Amino acid sequence: MKILQNSGVPIYQQIAEQLKTDILAGKYTEGDYLPSIRGLAQELKISVITTMKAYELLQSEGLISASPGKGYYVNSQDSEMLIEQHMRRVEEALSEAIKSAKIAGLSNDELIETLKTLLSLE
Amino acid sequence: MMNNMENVIYGRNIEKKFKKFKLHIDELKVPKGFATALIGENGAGKSTLLNILTGVRVDYKGDIKYFDEQQALEQEGILDRIGYTGPNNFFLPHWTVSQVREICSILFDSFSKEKFDAFSKRLNIPEGSQGVRALSDGNRMKLTLATAFCRETDLLIMDEPASPLDPLMRDMLCQLIREYLSEGNGEKSVFFSTHNISDMENVTDYAIIMDDGSIVEQGFVEELKEKYILVKGEPEDSERASKYLIGMSKGKYGFEGMCLAKDMDKLAGIRVSFETPTLSQISIAVMKQHTGLFQG
Known about the structure:
A: Arc Repressor Mutant, subunit A, two-stranded antiparallel sheet, 2 strands, 61% helix, B: Rossmann fold, 6-stranded mixed beta sheet, 9 helices
C-alpha cells in the first residue's frame, strides 16, 4: 500500500480505497482479518486515528465488520454491490468530464471522439 | 468512532495557582490506546499539567484517575505502569551511560537491560566513559527516552521529547511511539507535549490545545480537520470574511484564516478557496484566537 502525503486526497480515503481494491481483487476474502489498526499505522508511518477512520469508512459501506478485541474482518462480498459502486464512480467522473467539455465548448461528437481516442490509448 | 472511548487519564477540576498564573482544567480526558499531543504556547501550563499528572508536583487541587481501574496515582502499582520523560536532566552529571543503565535497573522493576541496549543502539546514543554532563541536549534526551521505552509500562508521559532532537531522531521517536501503541494493541497510551507540531502530526491521534492555564480546544485530529476549514481569499473580501475567521492573516495579495465548518455557509458569495488544514495550522489559529496577539 502506498500513501501520498500531499496528494490532496485525505490519507484515510487513500487507505480505504486501496483496501477496497484489494478486497475486490480477492486479496482478502470473506472472513480474512485486515491488518491491525495500530500495526498498519506503524507500517504506513501515520497516526492510529487515520487508519481507524479508514476502517470505519469501510465498515459503514458494509465491506468489513468489527470483532471486538480481534480487529476487522472482511464480510461476504456482494459483487453486484461492488460493481454498482464502481459504476457510480464511472458515472460521476464522466459527468465531470461532460461539464468540463461544455465549458471548453466541445460538441458532443468531439467529446465522444476524445473518449474513443483515450480508450484506444489504454 | 469517538463516542465510546475509554480514557487512560481522567481528571476533574484540576487547579494550581501561582502568583501570576492559574492552571484550571474542568475536565481532562486522555483517550486510551492513542497518542495524544499537548499543544500550547510557552507558559500555557503544559509542563505544570504534566508534572501534576506524573506526581512530580503534588501541591494541586483536583481529582485525577488513571487506567481502567480509575485509580489514583498514589495507589500501589500505578506509578510502575507510567513512564515519564521530562525536559530536564534526571541523571547526576558524572554518571556514565552504563551507570545510568545500572541505576535505572535498580530503580525500576521492569527495566530491561537488553531492551535498553537495543534502544540505545537504535537511538544512536554514544557510549563511553564520559559523564552525562558531556552529552549534548539531544543525546541526553535520547538517553532519557531509552530509559522510559525499555520499561514495561502502559502509559508514557513525555514533556517536550522532540525539542532537542534532530529531524532524523524525531522521525525515530514517532516510530518508537507507533511501535509502543502497536505492541499495546489498544491498551497502551502516549501523552506528550510538543512545540514541533508538524514533526509529530503523523503520530498524533488526539490533540489538546492549552492557553493561559486552560484547555481551549481538543479532539481527535481527524475530527478537528473536519471541524475547521482553511480559507483563502482576495484582499477586497477580507473585511467581510474576517467576522467568521479565526487566526486570520491579511496581506497585500490576499487573506487566510480558519473557519468553522458550521460557519462555511456564511461565507457564501465571497470568492474563497478551501483547504483541509493541518494540525499545525489548526493549533496556530486556535492559539492566535485565544492569545489575542497578532490580531488584524
